[in-house]
Each structure stands twice: as structure tokens, then as C-alpha cells.
Amino acid sequence: MSENYYVTLKQIIDNHMLEAVYIPKKAEDIKITTNEVNRPGIVLTGYTDYFDPLRIQILGWTELGFLQNMSNVERSKALGYWLGLHPAAAVVTRGLAIPDYFIKACEAYEVPLLRTDEETSTFLAALIGFLNRELAPRITRHGVLVEVYGEGVLIVGESGAGKSETAVELIKRGHRLIADDAVEIRKVSDKVLEGCSPSNIRHFVELRGIGVINARRIFGMGAVKLKEKIDMVIQLEEWDATKSYDRLGLDNEFARILDVKVPVITVPITPGRNLAVIVETAAMNNRQKKMGYNGAKELMHCLGMDDIEPNDRELEIWENS
User: Fold this and answer.
1) Is 163 a catalytic residue?
2) pLDDT above 70 for 315
3) 29 included as an active-site residue
């Protein structure tokens, strides 16, 4: 993505309940722009090649013990090698006592110093997960995102196709709304997309003829959710009598969103079709496929047609997606 995202040090402190031992300026003015973190290790010995000062530095028993066993001169040089590169911040884990010389060195080089009671590996995992989500590449696209039987279903289609009405019917059937009209999609890992609603329109749904409603206010807290992974896409389109629609489900259709492949099902719209039931069935079927069962393949096996090979086809669900 061409746009650069950041998270402030204050957000990290608040999210992970960190103790601010020393901060040279307001935490909200310190920006973290990379989702990678680092443990100083070999940098303390003077090898500074490939060191990335944008990364948050994590120190546990090993690093503090290594510094403690040095002479005063060696320790001063080691901290100079490392802090002289002005890393984004340093976090001491396990609630370890921080020696005065360490605090003074951070103050001298104006490097933020924080502390957490969490164990090193636990904190590393939590911090990386948080940064992956907050700094993830993202796009905002027109659609509706709902959670159906634990599956994140992104419903797309032309304006007036019935996306919002389908979402309301699904809410009434016990499922949950994540976003209506605009869906912010983030690539939180190489294989996982996560969707949420822009904060200024969160929980609102537009129904033609009724107007805008607040799903959380009308249906309760159990009807909404802040974010959800995107497991599949359902594309609604007007029935085209000249088009041949998939009737078996053998072929694998997918869309590439932020370079992540997501299964797609195209559902033609005709009067009388219960779209909510179709979405429910599609979500359960997608879940079965992920667990290793494919009803279409079983039918082909029963008919002695195991030699039929499925085709993969990429669909364009949005322009310039």
C-alpha cells in the first residue's frame, strides 16, 4: 500500500497497560510505523549492521543479566552502541527491576523506557498481534459484513441489490452485523483479512423506505460485533437468463483482496428467493469445505464421476480492488 500507517506509543501503553518509566515527550506524539519488534542481543556487543531503529526493543532476563555482568566501562559502551541508534522504545518485561544506569542511559539518549509484568514471549506475541492489526494494509469497499455461524461473510453487489435487507434478516435470525455500506478491510497476515466498520457509521444500517437505523439500539448488543475475519464473499447480482450459473459447486471461484484469495459465491437475485437462508447455507457449506467435506464431490463420487476436475476462476468483485 502506498499509504503509511502508524500507531502512537500512547495507544501501545494503553492497550498493553505498560508502565511508563521514562518518556522524553508526549507519548501520543511518538509514532510507531513498523509491526516488527526486536531484542537487542548482539547489538549490545557492538554489531549494529542491519539494526532497524524503528522497531520497539524488548528486554528480559537475558539482556539485563548480560548488562549486569559487564564492567562499568563495558556496560557504558554496550548501551552506547545500542541506544546511540535511537530505537523507537525499550520495554522491560516480567516486571524486572530496572537498574539506575539503564534509566540514566535511556534519558541521555532520549529513548522511551517502558515496563510490563508480562513474560517476554507472551508480551512479544501480544504486541506483534496488535501492531499487525493496527499497521495492516487496508482498503475500504462498498458491501456488508456479517458473522454467520462463526463465518465472516462479505456481501457485495450493486446498490439496491438487497445487501442491507439481508443483513437485517440475518440479525433477526441470531447472527451479527459488523459493517454496512462501507467495510474497512485489513490484511492482518499473509492469509487473513479482517473487516470492520468505520467508527463514524458503526452499527448503522440504511434501509430504503425506512431510513437509517441503529442495529445495536434496536436489536441489542448481541446483534453487532466490532470486527471479524473475512472467510468468504457472496456476490449478489440480478438474474441473467443468458448466463449459466454454477449448479453443483465443484468449481472454485475466488476474489483476490489485498493479494489474499477469498472464496466467492455468486447468487442470482429473483423475486421470492430467501437471501438470508441462502447466506446461512453458504456459510455452513464453506465451513464444511474448510473441515474437509465437499457435498458436490461426494455426489460426483456416488455417480461414478470422480474424474471431473474442478476449475479455479478469479472474479473481479470491485473495480481496482
Assistant:
1) yes
2) yes
3) no
The catalytic residue among 181, 216, 229, 289 is: 181
Question: Which triple of cell numbers denotes residue 188?
Answer: 492482518
Catalytic residue among 142, 172, 217, 256: 142
Of 49, 247, 259, 312, the active-site residue reads 247
**CB of 37 closer than 8 Å to CB of 55:** yes
| Integer Cα distance of 111 and 221 in angstroms | 42
Mean pLDDT over residues 15-40, rounded? 95
pTM confidence score: 0.82
Rounded Cα gap, residues 233 and 247, in angstroms: 17
Which grid cell sits at 84? 546511540
Query: Who's near 185: CB < 8 A, 6+ residues apart?
Result: 138, 139, 140, 141, 193, 194, 195, 230, 257, 258
**CA-CA distance, 217 to 239, in Å (whole number)?**
35
For 139, the 3-state DSSP assignment is strand
311: β partners? none
**What are the φ/ψ torsions at residue 310 (nearest 5 degrees)?**
-70, 150
**Alpha carbon of residue 150 to chain centroid:** 16
Quickly state the pLDDT bin for 321 (edges 50, 70, 90): very low
- Would you call 247 a catalytic residue per the annotation? yes
Q: Would you call 203 a catalytic residue per the annotation?
A: no
The whole-number pLDDT of residue 319 equals 60
The number of helix segments (H) and strand segments (E) in the chain equals 9, 18
pLDDT for 276-306, tens place per residue? 999 999 999 999 988 888 888 888 888 888 7
Mean pLDDT of the chain: 91
Which of 55, 75, 163, 187 is catalytic? The answer is: 163
- Read off the C-alpha cell for 89: 522504545
